[in-house]
Design goal:
The chain is about 20% helix and about 15% strand. The protein is of the alpha+beta class. It has a three-stranded mixed beta sheet. It has a two-stranded antiparallel sheet with strand order 2-3. Strands 4-5 form a two-stranded antiparallel sheet. A hairpin with a 6-residue loop joins strand 6 and strand 7. The longest helix has 10 residues. It is globular. The two termini are about 30 Å apart.
Length: about 280
């Protein structure tokens, strides 16, 4: 994997010691139609996954998630995610009217889109498709420009505060290469997360998707109008209830998870400067 050759832990250590970050080249920086997308010839090849016959995808069963945040903890531990930043996060929303109320939870991470806007916008060519169609970052190339953050419709990318490089879910490529699931999947106590090869009808994710497609509500995806063709599907009520509270272009997962005012979802119960982060985001780890 390209990410292995530019190990992020080693890079962060070097950056903290004062090493210079890569300087952005002017090559390939001509803006595309919206001023952020690069010319197609600059990203066309990087949008193509290796012809390995594998198609990695996700299924999230929000009917089973009870908001324990174990997926976030394991993700942080596995990938050295600094305090206040997230590769994945669990969002929640209270629904119903007292006394018939409930809280729904929705784990989120990179959608590993077929038509990934982050790849199209990356001015240094670091974002690309890896094995199984995983959207990955080459840390030998990433210049920390941040355009990928600006165009991601799901807020799934952040800039590392030390290395000044983009960071996102990479399907735990180091585990996938060893035939293991991403760290969050086996950690989930309710078995709400499923990952695997969509081309394999006997994979865990394929079986879970077939079962969920037959139940009431069926399968859903987040913001299909963006036409990114994400490789993550959801089941349950959470996608409808939580969608408006998910981050959008130019945003990342909220670091204010421990803010006491986030405990209340009534905007009248909190000062004006914190009401914008209402209905959020699972606890930090």
């Amino acid at each position: 994997m390209a990410e292995q050759s530019g190990d992020r832990r080693a890079f962060m250590t070097a950056a903290a010691a004062g090493s210079l970050l890569p300087i952005l080249s002017t090559e390939g920086q001509q803006a595309g139609g919206d001023g952020k997308q690069q010319p197609e010839e600059f990203w066309r090849d990087r949008m193509k996954a290796p012809d390995d016959g594998i198609k990695f995808g996700w299924f999230v069963d929000t009917r089973r998630c009870f908001g324990c945040h174990a997926c976030e903890v394991s993700c942080k531990a596995e990938n050295d995610v600094p305090l206040g930043n997230y590769i994945r996060q669990t969002f929640y929303q209270d629904v119903g009217t007292y006394p018939q109320v409930a809280r729904v939870f929705m784990p989120m991470s990179c959608q590993h889109c077929e038509d990934a806007p982050c790849i199209k916008a990356c001015p240094c060519g670091a974002l690309h498709k890896e094995a199984g169609g995983t959207v990955a970052i080459d840390y030998n190339i990433c210049c920390g420009h941040g355009t990928c953050v600006e165009v991601c419709p799901y807020g799934a990318i952040y800039l590392d505060p030390v290395a000044k490089q983009a960071v996102k879910c990479h399907n735990c490529y180091h585990r996938a290469e060893a035939g293991m699931e991403p760290a969050c999947v086996p950690t989930c106590p309710s078995e709400a997360l499923h990952f695997g090869d969509l081309n394999d009808p006997e994979s865990s994710v394929s079986k879970a998707l077939r079962a969920a497609a037959d139940v009431e509500g069926g399968l859903q995806q987040i913001r299909p109008e963006k036409q990114t063709r994400p490789r993550m599907w959801f089941a349950g009520p959470a996608p409808v209830e939580v969608e408006e509270h998910l981050p959008r272009e130019g945003e990342s997962y909220n670091p204010e998870a421990y803010n006491i005012y986030n405990w209340a979802q009534d905007e009248s119960a909190a000062p004006a400067d914190v009401t914008e982060s209402r209905s959020t985001r699972g606890g930090d780890a």
